[in-house]
Amino acid sequence: MNSTIWLISSAMILSEFGLNLGPVVASAGVIGVALGLGAQTLVRDILAGIFMLVEDQFGVGDNVDVLDVTGIVESVGLRITTVRSADGTLWYLRNGEILKLGNKSQPNH
């Protein structure tokens, strides 16, 4: 509440000195939209990571097929999952891009 009052009073004082705040407000709006669009993939990756962890889809040490990569899961984070393939390559996979995953380590139900 205090910050809102401070912001409005500052804008009123600056306008009394003849400063046009229209371009500043418009620029702030454009920057806000750009940040929102830029953060979209980050939010998607984090939400996907949360669901992966909660649903226990796979874990460290599991043998998986994911995004054209087959290997052993080395880490599962909120944003990134790392998989080491048979040739030793460490793959960093964004959780939001993992739409289909095969887990060879989970037992049959």
Automatic annotation (TrEMBL):
Residues 5-40 form the Mechanosensitive ion channel transmembrane helices 2/3 domain. Keywords: Cell membrane, Membrane, Transmembrane, Transmembrane helix. The chain crosses the membrane at residues 20-43. It is found in: Cell membrane. GO terms for cellular component: plasma membrane. The keyword ATP-binding does not apply. Coiled coil: none annotated. Pfam families: MS_channel_1st, MS_channel_2nd. InterPro entries: LSM_dom_sf, MS_channel_1st, MscS_beta-dom_sf, MscS_channel_2nd, MscS_channel_TM-2, YbiO_bact. Its main location: membrane. It is a multi-pass membrane protein. GO terms for molecular function: mechanosensitive monoatomic ion channel activity. Residues 41-99 form the Mechanosensitive ion channel MscS domain. PANTHER family: MODERATE CONDUCTANCE MECHANOSENSITIVE CHANNEL YBIO. Belongs to the MscS (TC 1.A.23) family. This is Unannotated protein. It comes from freshwater metagenome. The lineage of its organism: unclassified sequences, metagenomes, ecological metagenomes.
